[in-house]
Design a protein that fits this description.
alpha+beta, Chitinase A, domain 3, Recoverin, domain 1, 2 domains, two-stranded antiparallel sheet, 27% helix
Length: 233
């Protein structure tokens, strides 16, 4: 939905952690945001100032890419800082998928065509941020224009990319079986090294098929998997 951050399971839960491995990357701003007024959103634009551009600027970000970035958020009205990623999550940069509604619309726009090492200062109008409602929990008042200072560290293929699908699709039949996804989960669990109860694997596998096997045939097709559709399978 336009301008809205989807609600996710709490990232601390075992189910939530497992699903992030395959389907649900972490959101940049974990709060609902609704842009107000379609006409205003169409008329207003995000203003972008490039503060630093690397000599080699590649790859450039596009919709569906998995980005890693640090950012500070300020209110344009008085310059007060309402968010700093360096003080959250032990200071680790944030991971999120670009252009799919995991962040406010203005950030999805502001971080397109951005390369690793690039720094930007962006001004986001209310219609592309938190609109008339604001976001009290984040100390963002109604009709607030926001300023973000962003430093991008990495641009990777997103979890719904062709490469990710093909990595799981061991027999190259353009559909993912329970066995293929089960094996992928085992490999990812082994890679991160965290101890989990054996039942967690089965719960995550069942949840993945419940949410993605729309026709109930026991497989996740390329169409069912590739919801971001930034590449063709």
């Amino acid at each position: 939905r336009r301008g809205q951050v989807p609600r996710r399971r709490p990232p601390g839960s075992e189910m939530g952690r497992g699903l992030t491995l395959l389907l649900l990357p972490l959101a940049l701003l974990a709060a609902p945001a609704q842009a107000e007024g379609g006409t205003a959103a169409a008329e207003e634009e995000v203003k972008i100032e490039v503060l630093h551009l690397p000599e080699v600027c590649s790859p450039k970000s596009k919709r569906g890419d998995l980005l890693n970035a640090h950012y500070d958020g300020f209110l344009a009205s008085d310059g007060s800082k309402f968010y700093c990623s360096r003080t959250q999550n032990e200071g680790h940069p944030k991971w999120f998928v670009l252009g799919v509604g995991q962040v406010i619309k203005g950030l999805d726009v502001a971080m397109m065509n951005m390369c690793p090492g690039e720094k930007r200062k962006v001004i986001i109008p209310p219609s592309l941020a938190y609109g008339q409602q604001g976001y009290a929990q984040g100390k963002i008042p109604p009709n607030a224009t926001l300023i973000f200072e962003i430093e991008l560290y990495a641009v990777n293929k997103g979890p719904r990319s062709v490469e990710a699908f093909n990595k799981i699709d061991k027999d190259s039949d353009k559909k993912l079986s329970e066995l293929e996804i089960s094996q992928y989960l085992k490999e990812e669990f082994a890679r991160d090294g965290k101890k989990r109860h054996p039942s967690v694997h089965d719960e995550i596998l069942a949840d993945i098929f419940k949410k993605n096997d729309h026709d109930g045939d026991g497989f996740i097709s390329a169409k069912e998997y590739n919801v971001y559709q930034h590449d063709e399978l």
